[in-house]
Amino acid sequence: MLIKRTRGWELPERLVTPESVALGRRAAMAGGGAILAGTLAPSAARAQADADPTAKFYPARRNDTYGVPTPMTTEKLATTYNNFYEFGSHKNIWREAQKLPIRPWTIKIGGLVEKPIEISFDELIAKMPLEERVHRFRCVETWSMIVPWSGFPMKALVEFAKPLGSAKFVEMKTLSRPSIMPGQREFWYPWPYTDGLAIDEATHDLAFIATGLYGKPIPRQNGAPLRLVTPWKYGFKQVKSIVSIDFTDKRPVSFWEKLLPTEYGFWANVNPQVGHPRWSQATEKLLGSDARIPTLLYNGYAEWVAGLYEGRKSEKLFM
């Protein structure tokens, strides 16, 4: 009797995207002229692409090392249903986010490094090994999506920064610009948005800096021009529109940890058995589906990242 054993990132066959659909999407991107479906008018999308000197890097080579979960979320859903509190606490912020200026964009790298530097995004991306990865994304609010991120392993950025041996954590911050980010005018939030990783998390190959989405430069509402993607953690860890990266020997206090320390911890790993204080995390709703599916430990990436936390089991790892 043949018994099929599924890996952590696989979903049942009934949810798999038909091959013809998947190949059609890739062919459309490879042929060029693909636009941000349902979000920008064609002329605006073309203008944005023409003005972005990094557009030539996409679509990037696919890396399937960590699997290709399915079904793929449609581009329209993934780019119009967004959390980006700088632009508002509702999900329909994509129009407001178009005000975000992403040229010029400078990233400051400092703290416990050999030499603090400032570098433009366009210069940084040209130095990095770009690739595409299809990953699950799990929000603490229990919705989820599966999308093709483009970008580079965060460990490449760490190597570029040359941290000192005393650096134990990486702290990242989002742009602060209340004049164009209306959410930052809400005084009760601890702006700027801040989050971080331990060095061993940041240098794990699964940790990713996303610069693209669906074979194109990443849209503003999804965190342009660069954002963190750690697919085994809840989405609130994945800081967007990064402007500073600091290496430190002290564990950063994240945005949500400052705001609600009884509900959100630093590690924020996905675990279906550990509920949020106000709701269960046992299931999730994939964007575009009415059904709820079981949540997976470490969001389906346990076989690769669980070992990071063997010596940290006494800490609040899962919320």
Would you write up a description of this structure?
The chain is an alpha+beta fold. The protein has one domain (59-308): Sulfite Oxidase, Chain A, domain 2 (Alpha-Beta Complex), CATH 3.90.420.10. The protein contains nine helices and twelve strands. Strands 3, 4, 7, 8, 9, 11 and 12 form a seven-stranded mixed sheet that branches. Strands 2-1-10-5-6 form a five-stranded mixed sheet. The longest helix is centred in the N-terminal third of the chain and has 12 residues, at 19-30. The chain is globular, with a radius of gyration of 19 Å.
Provide tags for this entry.
319 residues, alpha+beta, Sulfite Oxidase, Chain A, domain 2, 7-stranded mixed β-sheet, 5-stranded mixed β-sheet, disordered N terminus
- For this structure, the CATH topology is Sulfite Oxidase, Chain A, domain 2
Q: Report the CATH C-level class.
A: Alpha Beta
Considering DSSP H and I runs of 4 or more, what fraction of the residues is helical?
10-25%
Tally the structural domains: 1
Specify the CATH architecture.
Alpha-Beta Complex
CA radius of gyration is: 19 Å
| Overall mean confidence score, pLDDT | 89
- Amount of beta strand: 15-25%
Helix/strand/pairing class, anyone?
alpha+beta
Shape descriptor reads globular
Q: State the major sheet.
A: 7 strands, mixed
Secondary structure elements and pairings:
Elements: H1 19-30, H2 42-51, H3 75-80, H4 94-97, E1 106-111, E2 117-120, H5 121-127, E3 131-138, E4 143-153, H6 154-161, E5 169-174, E6 194-198, H7 199-202, E7 208-213, E8 216-217, E9 227-229, E10 242-248, H8 255-259, E11 283-286, E12 292-294, H9 302-305
Parallel strand pairs: 1-10, 4-11
Antiparallel strand pairs: 1-2, 3-4, 4-7, 5-6, 5-10, 7-8, 7-9, 11-12
